[in-house]
Amino acid sequence: MRLSTPMLSAALGLGLTAAALGTVPAAAAQAPEPASTTSVASLAGAGYNGSGEEAKANEAFFEAVLKSVAEKRAANPTSAAAVTVVYNASAAPSFATQIARSTSIWNSSVTNVKLQAGTSGASFTYREGNDSRGSYASTDGHGRGYIFLDYAQNQQYDSTRVTAHETGHVLGLPDHYSGPCSELMSGGGPGTSCTNSIPNSAERSRVNQLWANGLAKALAKVNQD
Question: Please, which residues bridge with residue 83 across strands?
Fold first, then answer.
């Protein structure tokens, strides 16, 4: 969720309660600088319309996670219909509640893929800190990626919505900032009053489709290599 400078200043002055959005450490950590090969996709603030670069970053993140999961599944075949994507949230302790809520939302919304917390073999991680870009999903395209949750932005926008939106990129959904509040991937487009953190029926269907067809293709490629 990228913010313009005025919006970022407003976010810093809101002072929303920790109970609503999670406790923000007094000395906030700085965001890690992505490597030069990193693609970044952010949840845009109101007024930001996205770009071709953002769309490519979203797709790159999904493909990296899909490849990582396919390689693990090929090494340990299972008859389970749903695939499990493991994430590590240890680097984002302030957002433990929001990450747990986001995981629960997605796991109850889709059937072909499930999110699971873990510290070993994770396909992506969550991180926290301060970044002028806001919250974003980042990947180097080689099966290693992370979701960065920005403190200031999560004070201005509904924190669970921000987390669930960024997690949507992991599952293959692109941004659609012009959509209504009922559409999770509309991100910050509907404004700060939007608190919906649940994907709509079209988004749920798309994720199920991606993880049925996309994983099959990824597995076929892995088995050929």
Answer: 113
Measured from the Cβ of residue 182, the count of other Cβ atoms closer than 10 Å reads: 14
Describe the strand order of the beta sheet including 39-42 as a list of residue ranges: 39-42, 136-139, 145-150, 124-129, 83-91, 113-117
Which residue ranges make up the annotated binding site for Zn(2+)? 165, 169, 175
Cβ atoms < 10 Å from Cβ of 85: 23
Q: Coil, strand or helix: which one is 4?
A: coil
What is the SS3 assignment for 147-201?
EEEEHHHHHHCCHHHHHHHHHHHHCCCCCCCCCCCCCHHHCCCCCCCCCCCCCCH
d(CA 28, CA 152): 10
Active site residues: 166
Per-residue pLDDT of the chain (225 residues; tens, 9 = 90+): 543 323 333 333 322 323 233 333 333 444 444 433 344 555 554 333 345 666 677 677 777 777 777 777 666 666 556 788 899 999 999 999 999 999 999 999 999 999 999 988 888 999 999 998 889 888 765 556 899 999 999 999 999 999 999 999 989 898 999 999 999 999 999 999 999 999 999 999 999 998 887 666 666 666 666
Would you say 102 and 160 are in contact if contact means Cβ atoms under 8 Å apart?
A: yes
Residue 62 exposed, middle or buried by CB count within 10 Å (0-12, 13-18, 19+): buried
Known binding-site residues equal 158, 160, 165, 169, 175
